[in-house]
Amino acid sequence: MRILIAEDERRAMRGLKNLITSISEQYEVVAEASNGRQALELIQVVKPDVVFTDLKMPYMDGMSLIKASQAAGISAQYVIVTAYEEFEAAREAIVLGVKDYLVKPITYDEVFDLMKRLEKKKGEHNSDEIVRLKERYPDVHPLVIKCLNFIEKGYGSKINQKDLAENLGISQEYLCYLFNKEMGETFSKFVKNYRIEAAKKLLLAGYPKDELPYHVGFSDPKYFNKVFRETVGMSVSEYLEENKR
Fold it and tell me: Mean pLDDT throughout 59-68?
């Protein structure tokens, strides 16, 4: 597993690196960054499996780093490293798809348990991939291809169209126009349908129904069930029953 650590405190970075690498030879820290801007550049070059990021860093904070990485279509798991007083901010990162965090001071047992969870999630992610959108829509505008890459990698987290447009260097209005023109439907509708497509695949693979809405980017299970029924034409339970035959 390839790991990048973004931490502006040298002692904290060295300590975390030593903990991670002492657990298993399979855990390789491929890059270290002392600020968010440097981390973003390295992430795009080394493409790590896991990014550990402090919340407070020079030039770009941890939240902004995660948003920018996701908008660039980087497929990685993100772990927030935070001091106790920043705990609430770490909780907010959940909307970005951040599932794990470490509170300083960090212990060996905490890192050991975390790395095992990340390994399991990496396996789940590899098993729930659906058809690559770039292959499904090879002839669309290059900017739309970048949008599709982002949707494919980030559909399980909150997708902010404004932030995506900014990272692409265009206005939100132009992004809406271009996506609609190339894809024949709005950005938000496409994302919603893609999430339901992913949900169907996960359901048939045995993914827990109670956890599914959050895994595919819905924060409200009732709304997920409503969208699923509208899109598929039957409820989640009916879909499962229909496809067991």
Answer: 86
